[in-house]
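Human: I wish I could look at a protein chain and see how it folds. This is the protein in question:
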Amino acid sequence: MVRTMGTRAMRRQYFSAVGLALLLSLSGCGEQTPTVPSATSAEGLWTGTTITSRTVTAAVLEDGASYFFYSLPANPNQIAGVLQGLGLSDKGGFTSSHAKDFGIGLTPLDTAISATYAARQFLNGSFTDSGAGTVAFTSTYNIAYETTPSVASLAGVYLGQAGSSGGVQSATVTATVDGMFTGTEQNGCTFSGKATARSHGNVFDQSVTFGGPPCFFAGSTFQGIVYFDIATRRLYTAAPNSPRTDAAIFFGTKLL
């Protein structure tokens, strides 16, 4: 989290649009009911900043799984990576000792997350990467977590950037109201998949399968999450591979 994106991230342009594929938080399951997080856990959506001027957008799910998206320093319009792990909420403390820091264009690092929280109010703490140091962050609860997901409102075309340890490139995804999606990235890689609504909160699960070369993850299927910020029309997606040695990340904007 304290690292910066290397120049090789911008040079290697063959990354698969994996994150994009995560894109559609649309689910074919229809409308879900609103979710109010437990009064004793850190569950929810969180928005904040680090002391290094990075924007943080986080989802802590009801099962403890967490995804902390972070931007480039002083540039909220460009995602630099995501911290992903399984955490525990206990008496105002949230910890995840086996998280991974998937920085775009960088080798993933083992990471620990330690924070204090007040349910539906704040989540403040620090990220500690192996060999890279500790960065403190503060965040506040985003009530959008309690919004009933709207599949129909998510259908459309998204433009943005997809990234992994291999680098970053532009990509386009087209989603339909049934949760199915197809996409193409700059180098010609194609992918397809489907997103489904979770039983808790305004966050979605997704599965995406990549085509053959030139896809960076050719022939692979990934599982991950999607969060669509209705207010900013921004889409956040992340999906680690099963051994957690790499991850597909996407950050983009829905066209009007």
Summary: DSSP finds three helices and 17 strands in the chain. The mean pLDDT is 86.
